[in-house]
Amino acid sequence: MKVAVACDHAGFALKETVVHTLQELGHEVIDCGTHNTDRVDFPDHAALAAQKLTAGQAQRAVLICGSGIGMCLAANKVRGVYACVCHDAYSARQGVEHDNMNALCLGALVIGKELAAVLVKEFMAAQYFSSGNYKKRVDKILALEKKI
């Protein structure tokens, strides 16, 4: 699977762990920056990764900033991106299975490298339960998106 990875300066140190974990799992990483710890604006990099998702160039994304919240807010402004901050394994998996989440947001100042690797593994292993109540609820989210 192709995965867009983006971070700001606060998330840069954790990006290496995320990229390494994805590559170990056999996924292709599309690096959307940043490439050092120089101060940058997280919405710019969230937008780059979101564009990869909506263009079909990536199937999932992992976005990293200090708290995960900024990346999450920015990414969710792009139609077709369903991003959530997850700092526990259950949410990283369940967000995909129940809600068709396609972007995992991590807070580099909140979690460590070991937990980040676990979350990426859970996120990437999960598949959307695309039937029954799960589909009905996701369809309602898509309908909301079309109204706005």
Give structural notes:
There is one protein chain. With 148 residues, this protein is α/β, with parallel strands linked by helices. It is 49% helix and 16% strand. The protein is built from six helices and five strands, in the order E-H-E-H-E-H-E-H-E-H-H. The chain has helices spanning 12-24, 42-54, 69-75, 89-99, 113-125, 132-147; strands spanning 2-7, 28-31, 60-65, 83-85, 103-107. A five-stranded parallel beta sheet has the order 2-1-3-5-4, with helices on both faces. Helix 1 links the parallel strand 1 and strand 2 (28-31). Helix 1 packs across helix 5, helix 2 (42-54) packs across helix 3 and helix 4 (89-99) runs parallel beside helix 5 (113-125). It is globular. It starts with a strand and ends with a helix.
Question: What are the main properties of this structure?
Answer:
single chain, 148 residues, 5 strands
Biggest sheet statistics: 5 strands, parallel
Give the helix proportion (percent range). 40-55%
Q: Biggest sheet: strands side by side, in what order? A: 2-1-3-5-4
Q: Indicate the radius of gyration in whole angstroms.
A: 14 Å
Any low-confidence stretches, pLDDT <50, length ≥5? none
Number of strands: 5
Q: What class, by secondary structure content?
A: alpha/beta
β-sheet strand percentage: 15-25%
The CA-CA distance between the termini, in Å, is: 30 Å
Element pattern in H and E = EHEHEHEHEHH
Mean pLDDT over the residues: 97
